[in-house]
Amino acid sequence: MDTTTNRSDLDVLLNKMKSAVSPLRKTLNDLYTKYRAVNDGEVATYIPELAKADPNWFAISIVSIDGQVVEVGDHQQLFSMQSVSKPFVFGLALEDHGREEVLTKVSVEPTGEAFNSIVLDEKSNRPFNPLVNAGAIATADLVEGRDYSERMSRLLGMFSRYMGHPVYVDNAVFLSERTTGHRNRAIAHLMLNFGMVRDRIEESLELYFQQCSVLTNCHDLAVMGATLANGGVNPFTGERALKAEYVKDLLSVMLSCGMYDYAGEWAFRVGIPAKSGVSGGIVAVVPGKFGIGIFSPRLDDRGNSVRGVQVCQSLSQQFGLHVFESGFTGRTLGEEFVRK
Ligand code: GLN
């Protein structure tokens, strides 16, 4: 075997990869340094487990649809998904029931209200969208299975297809969510009153509390985002996590409703589908290009990660990622990052 030739081939390849990836790494390092200095916002404290988060944790991960990874900071730090889980469970409900049936139980309108508001659409009695608590509980109710344990294992199986490895629930977070979840219970009872959920609300609430407690990290969020960017197929395992026909449903509710009562301004300023959670995670998707994960537990008064919002805004402006950017191609970042 001619090792010399092989070695020089390898060098060419490595150099190519270096030049493709290093400008992006520099960008992420710069963003990390710039926004690490932002200390506004507070860690969520509604349960003790979230209050334990280190406010300085900070990570940014980008994963392309062909499996390239660039990340900086605490990207392996585990945290519970919280509301980041909501669009993915919506996907499972769509697969179980189809679009029209799901829409009879949950609408797709932004609320302009806080994520945990106790409000349903006055005309239809439906929760406003699957990304506020009411809609997410109605969505969890739509996850099918013979019994609770099958429903739960289908839920976890779905998350593991997106992340590309088995997933675990943080039991302490789950128990606290369950013990303190009176408001979510009230929302579920209201929806039961209007026939929006079936008479198994304790079980569906358990599923909802479990999905909020699924452990993830910033890297995994970027992989989940890349899976959606890749039409529902995990770029590392090649496994389909979501039927292709539903990917656009998730992305459109994420764009219009994903950032709580900041969703309108988010669509205006950032313009990429995303979902945040109160543990400080954000997953964002640049369709056909890559997924972005951000983790920083300091939250603004709407419950979005302060640094996360700023990083996404900066990335979007710097690289023209807004989906309505004229001549949208995911410009510079896409060219540098996605080898074609
Ligand atoms: N567990 C939280 C709740 O149900 C999730 C909310 C969130 O991340 N916004 O209130």
Task: Give the overall shape.
Answer: globular
SS field, number of helical segments: 14
Output the radius of gyration. 20 Å
Named once each, the bound ligands are: glutamine
CATH superfamily of the largest domain: DD-peptidase/beta-lactamase superfamily
How many strands?
A: 7
Strand order of the largest sheet: 2-1-7-6-5
Uncertain ranges: 1-5
Secondary-structure arrangement, i.e. CATH architecture of the largest domain:
3-Layer(aba) Sandwich
N-end to C-end Cα span: 30 Å
How helical, in percent, are the residues? 40-55%
Strand residues, percent: 5-15%
CATH class annotation of the largest domain: Alpha Beta
Task: Give a short summary of the structure.
Helices cover 50% and strands 9% of the residues. By secondary structure, it is an alpha+beta fold.
Q: Which features characterize this protein?
A:
340 residues, alpha+beta, Beta-lactamase, 2 domains, five-stranded antiparallel beta sheet, two-stranded antiparallel sheet, 14 helices, 7 strands, 9% strand, globular, binds glutamine
Give an overview of the whole structure.
This protein folds into two domains: 3-81 and 216-338, 3-Layer(aba) Sandwich (Beta-lactamase), CATH 3.40.710; 83-212, DD-peptidase/beta-lactamase superfamily (Beta-lactamase, 3-Layer(aba) Sandwich), CATH 3.40.710.10. It contains 14 helices and seven strands. Helix 6 packs parallel to helix 9. Strands 2-1-7-6-5 form a five-stranded antiparallel sheet. A two-stranded antiparallel ribbon has the order 3-4. It is globular and about 60 Å long. The chain starts with a helix and ends with a helix. The protein has 340 residues and is of the alpha+beta class. The model is unreliable at 1-5 (pLDDT under 50). Strand 6 and strand 7 (290-295) form a beta hairpin. The protein has helices at residues 3-36, 48-51, 86-97, 99-103, 133-141, 148-163, 171-180, 182-193, 201-213, 218-229, 244-257, 263-269, 306-319, 331-337; strands at residues 59-64, 69-73, 79-80, 215-216, 274-276, 281-286, 290-295. Bound molecules: glutamine. Residues 82-83, 115-116, 133, 177, 184, 212, 277-278, 303 line the site of glutamine (GLN).
